[in-house]
Task: structure prediction
Amino acid sequence: MTVRGDVAARLTGRAVSGERQLSGDLAEVALDDGRVVVVKRSGAPGAARAEAAGLRWLAAAGSVRVPVVHGHEDGWLVVDRVVEGRPDRAAAVRFGRDLAALHAAGAPAFGAAPPDGPEDAYIGLAPMRNEPGTDWPRWYAGQRVLPYLRRAVDRGTLRSAEAAVVERLCERLPELAGPAEPPARLHGDLWSGNVLWGADGHVRLIDPAAHGGHRETDLAMLRLFGCPHLERVVDGYQEVAPLADGWSERVGVHQMFPLLVHAVLFGRGYAEQALTAARTALDG
Result:
C-alpha cells in the first residue's frame, strides 16, 4: 500500500481497495465499503490543519455544502470525493442562497480564524495571517492589502510610485468601503476552481482560506476569475440577503488582496490588474 493509502486507512478506519493519482499532491483512494476519498498532501506547515478547520467551520453553518473531513495529520488531509456534474441555472441560484446563509452565520471578528485553525494560514500557496480586527477598512488594509503590496515591491513586481496608488486606496478605504457590515463567515478563496458543481445539483466548496471578513469579498472573488451562471448566483444571494447599494462599484476594492497575492506568486500581469482596479476605485 502507498503512503496515501496508509493515511486514508488510518483517518477513515477502513481498508483500502484502490488508488488513482490525480496530481503530485492529490489522489483518489477507494475504500472497502465503496466510498471514495481524496487524499491531499501539503508541504506548508499548518496548511492541512487550516484547511480542515476551515471546511468544518463552513460546514457548521449548515448552508453551502463542503466535503466531509475525515481527518488530517502531518501535512495530509482526507476528505470525501465530490461527484461532479454540470453547472446549471437552478444550481447557481441555490448556491447564491446558500452562500448568503453561510455569510450570515458570521464570525467573531474580521480576520478571525476558524475554531482550531491556526492564525498563520494560507490562501492557495500564499501565507495569510488571521489577526482579528473590529474595523473592516483598517483591518483589510493592514492585514490583507499592505503586506502583499510590500512583498510585490520587494520582489520588483510593482514599482514604489505604483505602490503609492494602492496606498492611497488604503487611506481612502473608510469612505470607499460602503456601509459598515458585521463580520461574515467567508470561504476566503472563492475562485471558480474551488466551486464544484455536484451531480446532485448542489455546489460543494473546497480549498477554503476561511476567516471572518466582508461578504462582498467572496462575491468579488467569484467575479475575478469567472463563475458559471454568476448573475444567477447573485440573484439567489440577493433573494436571501440583499447587498448594500453600490456593491458592484466596490468589486475592485475587494479584488485588491487576491490580485496582489497573484502578483507576488505569478508576476507583473496581476500587478497591472491591481493598479487598474485601484485607479478605478479612486476615480469612481
About this structure: The chain has a mean pLDDT of 96. The first strand starts at residue 16 and ends at 21. The radius of gyration is 19 Å.
